[in-house]
């Protein structure tokens, strides 16, 4: 009996903030599940990835690049509602301060913020549904507080992080931490040494 439980696979829920951790190479995007799994298996050969939840807007260059993969790969979209990002557009009824040269990219900033909120909700939903192994892919420091909270959660949730080099933050760490760009190289890689929460 002990042998069968030892060989039982362990699911890792993957939450990918694709705006904060983009994959530029098309062939790598197509094989993203396998690339991530290769790195996870170097830590524990029982880890497996069922789906990758891609959190972000349903429009824009990155969303268009992901669209052909939906239904063809293990990437499952979690899109931001259009209603949540109109504040940054011309003619929006909601007031948003516009400071030329300071927040000209208000729409992008607000879109990313909404993606962060959705990804964090997904993280907590995984915990509540008893998924105890979560990999968060992001380059956004906004995730630091909820990751710390989940890591210290009394149910011993295993939150791992693959942080993107696009906006690296040394403090953005989980119980195990990878550099995302290294994690998805062929053959995978081990997590950073000492990559734990400070």
UniProtKB/TrEMBL annotation:
Superkingdom field = Eukaryota
Name the chain's protein.
Answer: NYN domain-containing protein
Q: What organism is listed for this UniProt entry?
A: Noccaea caerulescens (Alpine penny-cress)
């Amino acid at each position: 009996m002990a042998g069968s439980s030892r060989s039982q696979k362990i699911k890792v829920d993957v939450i990918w903030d694709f705006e904060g951790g983009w994959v530029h190479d098309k062939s790598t995007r197509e094989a993203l599940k396998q690339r991530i799994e290769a790195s996870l298996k170097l830590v524990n050969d029982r880890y497996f990835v069922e789906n990758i939840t891609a959190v972000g807007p349903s429009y824009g260059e990155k969303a268009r690049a992901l669209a052909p993969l939906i239904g063809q790969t293990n990437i499952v979209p979690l899109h931001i509602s259009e209603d949540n990002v109109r504040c940054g557009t011309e003619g929006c009824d909601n007031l948003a301060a516009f400071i030329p040269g300071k927040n000209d990219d208000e729409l992008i900033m607000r879109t990313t913020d909404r993606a962060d909120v959705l990804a964090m909700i997904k993280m907590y939903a995984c915990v509540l549904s008893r998924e105890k192994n979560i990999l968060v892919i992001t380059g956004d420091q906004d995730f630091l507080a909820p990751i710390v909270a989940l890591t210290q959660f009394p149910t011993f949730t295993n939150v791992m992080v693959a942080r993107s080099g696009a906006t690296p933050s040394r403090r953005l760490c989980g119980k195990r931490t990878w550099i995302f760009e290294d994690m998805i190289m062929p053959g995978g890689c081990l997590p950073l040494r000492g990559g734990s929460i400070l």
